[in-house]
Amino acid sequence: MSVLSNLSASGRAVRLAEAKSDRSDIRCPGVTRISTLYKDDRFEKCQLASIARRTAKYPNICMALVDERRAPSRDVAKPPGVLAYDLVQGALVRWSSTVDKSLPDPPTAVLLHGILGCRKNWGSFARRLANAFPTWQFLLVDLRCHGDSASMKKRGPHTVSSTALDVLKLVAQLRLTPRVLIGHSFGGKVALSMVEQAAKPLARPVRVWVLDATPGKVRPGGNKEDHPAELISFLSTLPKEVSSKRDVVEVLIREGFSMDVAQWVVTNLRPTESPGSPTSFSWAFDLEGIAEMYQSYEEKNLWEIVEDVPGGVHVNFLKAERSLHRWALEDIQRIRAAEELAADEGGAVEMHVLEDAGHWVHADNPDGLFKILSSSFQMLK
């Protein structure tokens, strides 16, 4: 009998508000993927300031790319790591942060996942973008307490703001100047917070995409809406190590969570390396930290940066047509009003609706999302 079989079910009907995992790993032709666990945590404010002085030009020449994993230093004790990431590069990108520092970085987009997600959520979509826009590169990040970044113990508080600062440190250390920031749900607020904390070092123009999230307080949902806080709470009652992913799926379904949510959650289980022992799995996240992050997501208010957008910053909100996320008429009206204000101040705010999609926009309607986002990569050369 499974160790999970005695867990009781309460029959709650729950839809989670964070992204489905990318279940495919098919590479697009002409796309290079560099997977790196970045471990140098040295960071100075002057590094952020230097980003503003770099442009996003690229040499239109093809060449082989080099794996960016750094050799461990024998002389210097390793400080705590920053974040784990993948760098998906188009066929015409010849840049590497470790090969020739004199080369200007190519136009770069940063893609951020939501609560209980990971960088793999964006894998297939990023490869599609890189195939369509071969001069661009796409930085996929595991946020603090998530995925491979969970093993890097980060100091609290675990908030939207501290998560955004993590990403700013990473792009500075990689010597990148993001031209596009794309964040889903919690990641959308992180992208807005990046603008709030480092508006000047960001490139101009820079386009920010907030996918199915509002800038203000997350409102309570109805019975049929998603309840991520309940999922986080229930996951905290499960064993830290389990023998079967299927057992976890069954328990989650009995508890009232949907099959989609259950199958997505178990993508956070990783095989436990125990030589000579039966195969088991452990969770690849810091659930206590994630609970704190989700509370910050519910409470963080970023309306000020939306209603007073810096010049050269274009903030795009995307609402999923079938989303169970807590959109209110007041939010939509306030964003519409911000569109007019920004136009007068040299910035921009824009509202979009993705048809035939629920909250998991990049899984529910990837074609529609690709069409909407493509404008950013066509306009920013």
UniProtKB/TrEMBL annotation:
One Pfam family cited in the UniProt record for this chain: Abhydrolase_6
A GO MF label: hydrolase activity
Entry-linked SUPFAM superfamilies: alpha/beta-Hydrolases (SSF53474)
Keywords per UniProt: Hydrolase
Keyword Transferase appears in the UniProt entry: no
Residue ranges constituting the AB hydrolase-1 domain according to the UniProt record: 110-370
Keyword Hydrolase attributed: yes
InterPro entries: AB_hydrolase_1, AB_hydrolase_fold, Serine_prot/Carboxylest_S33
Name of the protein described by the UniProt record: AB hydrolase-1 domain-containing protein
